[in-house]
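thought: user wants a sequence for this fold. calling inverse folding tool.
action: design(structure=
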């Protein structure tokens, strides 16, 4: 496993730990990701870990290059029956490897979207310093 992947998985684990005790209402809280609630952001991150570049491209073509349609379809595929099930699925994901296998893009997604969920909930997190300076 690469250094970037290791850092990304540490960030994933920290987010999982921060979200384990959310109430049902908190899971439905607004995030900094437009209209997505906390569970939807987690499902988006989980879905991104499942896509290769060819899979992403096929999905975008199927969505007629509308990223909102693409993202909604992928997160709904990943989402569990409950927020807790979505979080359990998320806890088992591997690194996000888009836009290419060795890229800071996936790490950036994990750090930024983690903050998109945490900040509105008042959860403080200091991202991995190595992750912030990767590139």
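)
observation: tool returned 135 residues.
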């Amino acid at each position: 496993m690469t250094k970037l992947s290791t850092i990304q998985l540490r960030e994933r684990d920290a987010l999982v730990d921060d979200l384990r005790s959310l109430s049902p209402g908190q899971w439905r809280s607004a995030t900094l990701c437009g209209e997505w609630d906390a569970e939807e952001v987690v499902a988006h991150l989980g879905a991104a870990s499942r896509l290769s570049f060819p899979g992403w491209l096929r999905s975008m073509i199927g969505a007629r290059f509308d990223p909102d349609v693409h993202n909604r379809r992928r997160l709904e595929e990943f989402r569990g029956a409950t927020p807790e099930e979505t979080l359990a699925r998320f806890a088992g994901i591997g690194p996000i490897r888009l836009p290419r296998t060795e890229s800071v893009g996936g790490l950036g997604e994990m750090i930024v979207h983690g903050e998109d969920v945490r900040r509105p909930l008042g959860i403080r997190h200091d991202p991995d310093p190595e992750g912030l300076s990767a590139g």
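thought: summarizing for user.
answer: Here is the designed sequence. Helices lie at 3-19, 24-27, 38-49, 53-62, 67-78, 83-91, 105-121, 129-132.
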